[in-house]
Amino acid sequence: MARSNARRSAVATGCVLGLSFFLASCGDDGGGDDSDNTDAAGDVDCSEFEQYTEEYGDLEGTEVTIYSTITPPEDEPHIESYVPFEECTGVDVVYEHSDEFEAQLQVRINGGNPPDIAYVPQPGLLETIVQDTGAPVPAPEGVEENVDEFFSEDWKEYGTIDGTFYAAPLGSNVKSFVWYSPTTFEANGYEVPETWDDLIALSDQIVDDGGVPWCQGIASGDATGWPATDFIEDILLRTAGPEVYDQWYQHEIPFNDPQVVDAVDQAGEILKNPDYVNGGFGDVSSIATTDVNQAGLPILEEQCYLHRAASFYAPNWPEDAEIAEDGDVYAFYLPAIEEEFGDPVLGAGEFTVAFDDRPEVQAFQEYVSSAEWANDKAELGGWVSANTGVELDNYQDPISRLSAELLQDDDAVFRFDASDLMPGDVGAGSFWTGMVDWITGAETEEVLTQIEETWPEE
């Protein structure tokens, strides 16, 4: 079978990075007898992939390009998960990541050079691209069948524009987490807060003890500002409830509705409180220039104690940091605020959008929408899916299992990231930049009014 260059071009070589790639990816051409349908590396049962060659034909020697927001180190398990597909179908999967994805994807589309597949993290951006360019290709039948079987109707709807199904969910995440150090908490006599009042009381206690409770960062290249939008959305769900939340992202109420103003101000009681932030980095304004991937690391040095970030933050911790309930770092659920709204869960995910309908592209789309791939991917760790075909025991770390349980809980009040559902010019544009202005000193109502004025005319 063809050997993939994707692993090398995207992340140097798998051997250097210590990824557990199959032997073939580290320079062994495999040789040997494939008559038993098992790859020469000894780990791949290629009989599981015959369905793709039967449905889509001989794929040997073809190439599929992937463009994604998933950057190192989170991308390493992704790249590894494609190896069986490459080995057994002969397709070379070329992976490219960017922290300027939202802007550059549209540049590439407009320039006539889109990737074969993009992992789009914003349904609102997908809608904008479909309506403005017509470039995305509807998902093939095999993908739709997988989504109908393994995902809820809500998740399918996120990938459907004007009645046409384009994009299957890929990964998912839970954003309603606060990271902390269990060992540090135990040493200082701190307890995990169960209510919002407890969370504020804990923050005050840390200040009284001479510490800085929170560390945050919203710098992320062209996407700078997005972590603050998550914080606002989590608070709005807890103060105004899911119905108002839905009205907000659907623009049934204005962006600067008083309920939204109140939520942003409540978030500001943490994010713009000079006594609370920005532990390990500087004053409040340093949040705007602190890299999102580095923002939580001062927890390990006791320069801060609390960092609100999603489940996907886990790979940013050093390899020698134990992530466990009694380890160096772990996460707790961001407490509810108003009892009437229950325990809301904010989450998000990526969607697999194709810009070409070549057989190899459709085969790869179907593969990554399957329960088989999702289970294999879960076993690599650091990743979560809303795919109900994934066995919870396959998740390799406690944060992933906890996240998956929340995603699969029928009683959970789950809402997708609102900025990702808004029109791209707002959700991936003015909302992001507005949060930078807000963090660096602009008043809440001024910022929200400016964002409201950018909402596309209907």
From TrEMBL:
UniProt cross-references to SUPFAM superfamilies, sorted A to Z: Periplasmic binding protein-like II
Gene3D superfamilies xref list: Periplasmic binding protein-like II
Bilayer-spanning residue ranges: none
Keywords: Transport
Leader peptide range in chain numbering: none
Pfam families cross-referenced by the UniProt entry: SBP_bac_1 (PF01547)
PANTHER family in the record: ARABINOSE-BINDING PROTEIN-RELATED, OSMOPROTECTIVE COMPOUNDS-BINDING PROTEIN GGTB
Family (UniProt): Belongs to the bacterial solute-binding protein 1 family.
Protein name listed in UniProt: Carbohydrate ABC transporter substrate-binding protein
Lineage: Bacteria, Bacillati, Actinomycetota, Actinomycetes, Jiangellales
